[in-house]
Amino acid sequence: MNSNEIDIHKELKKYFGFNQFKGLQEQVIKSILNKENTFVIMPTGGGKSLCYQLPALIQEGTAIVVSPLIALMKNQVDAIRSLSSENGIAHVLNSSLTKTEIAQVKKDITSGLTKLLYVAPESLTKEEYLNFLQTVPISFVAIDEAHCISEWGHDFRPEYRNLKGIIKQLGDVSIIGLTATATPKVQEDILKNLDMSDATTYKASFNRANLYYEVRTKTKNIESDIIRFIKQHKGKSGIIYCLSRKKVEAIAEVLQVNGISAVPYHAGLDAKTRAKHQDMFLMEDVDVVVATIAFGMGIDKPDVRFVIHHDIPKSLESYYQETGRAGRDGGEGHCLAYYSYKDVEKLEKFLSGKPVAEQEIGFALLQEVVAYAETSMSRRKFLLHYFGEEFDNETGDGGDMDDNVRNPKIKVEAKDQVVK
Ligand code: ADP
Ligand code: MG
């Protein structure tokens, strides 16, 4: 048995208090410790952070972690600090730091105390920081949310495109890319842009066996249909996604009038109201949040029992992320989407105001949503295929958990003929 193996289990327990690795974590960590370029694709909640945090903590030098959001970085730094008695074990380097704070960060890195340094991609381009980082030992560079590098992803950040050039200036360090975006196109883009075709890829399954997928045709009666659905799930937590703020307000009001406890959530509400509504949902003071896509990032309510799409999302990637908020605890999660071609045209109209390249990508992504909504094959099979994964409904977990499998369209027609 390899001594590495024994050690990483011990270190896992020591730093994180966990007895076991989750999914592919162990393989990924070994790959990182072997200084290999590594590409990690795991769904949200899969445990990607630990894949780079553990090797960073047990190796010489400082690991640089590139992350797109200051809030995410701060959360992670706080979490790491809580595992240690040394505040300096993890730092964020960004433009909001004072001169004194920057001096402290540099001191902690130089002394070898800092194991994880979180940076926004634009900070990494700063001469001053880059010059400094060239003088200290770097264990590896992890690029979290690596899909930000791709225009095919849902969160393109042009600054991510410069990363490879910058990392090269740090010398011969290995790169770890991590993302929850599983589409083959985005993966190709990531590998190409980071120039790491040699990377070992670790991809977890994206199958969410406990989620039931259903698409209903959107009609004039959608509101009463939604109310009936919610009343059938009385007292259960759910999220309803709408395209516009106006629709969010309108639906929340309709629900309230019909005796359903619901609050709206969108970026047009002030921060205090948003926080309040989010807390009400988390604390179960209300059952339902009616929201735009502004709601959900980082929200970890394990017992969301349904996610309704009042309007179709702009890509299957978003659909997967949004429906993925249901059934985190492994219990029931009903994902109901309403579909009408009129909504597709609306989304196309939005897109037509955008730059041409963005338009083309937007249309292509939208076509996949249309195909999903109109398919008569298993929704789960369709979704997983979109993520480059083959699924067999006979043998796969959750193989009968969608409307098309439960009520095949062709069979229904055949039955109708018999009755007539
Ligand atoms: P991701 O970045 O893939 O969305 P996170 O890194 O945020 O996921 O991890 C999700 C959750 O899983 C966290 O609460 C984390 O503490 C937990 N987790 C990670 N690894 C393990 C493990 N080996 N055992 C138990 N829980 C874990
Ligand atoms: Mg993450």
Automatic annotation (TrEMBL):
Look up keyword Cell membrane and say if it applies: no
Catalysed reactions, semicolon-separated: Couples ATP hydrolysis with the unwinding of duplex DNA by translocating in the 3'-5' direction
Please name the GO terms that the record assigns under molecular function. Answer: 3'-5' DNA helicase activity; ATP binding; DNA binding; four-way junction helicase activity; hydrolase activity; metal ion binding
Q: Write down the required cofactor(s).
A: Mg(2+); Zn(2+)
GO cellular component terms, A-Z: bacterial nucleoid; cytoplasm; replisome
Q: Is-annotated flag, keyword Nucleotide-binding?
A: yes
From what superkingdom does this record's organism come? Bacteria
Give the EC number(s) listed in the UniProt record: 5.6.2.4
Keywords assigned: ATP-binding, DNA-binding, Helicase, Hydrolase, Isomerase, Metal-binding, Nucleotide-binding
- The residues covered by the Helicase C-terminal domain are 221-378
Q: Which GO terms describe its biological process?
A: DNA recombination; DNA repair; DNA replication
| Domain Helicase ATP-binding, chain residue ranges per copy | 29-200
Sequence similarity: Belongs to the helicase family. RecQ subfamily.
Name assigned to this protein: ATP-dependent DNA helicase RecQ
Q: Which organism is it from?
A: Flavobacterium fluvii
User: What are the top taxonomic ranks of the organism?
Assistant: Bacteria, Pseudomonadati, Bacteroidota, Flavobacteriia, Flavobacteriales
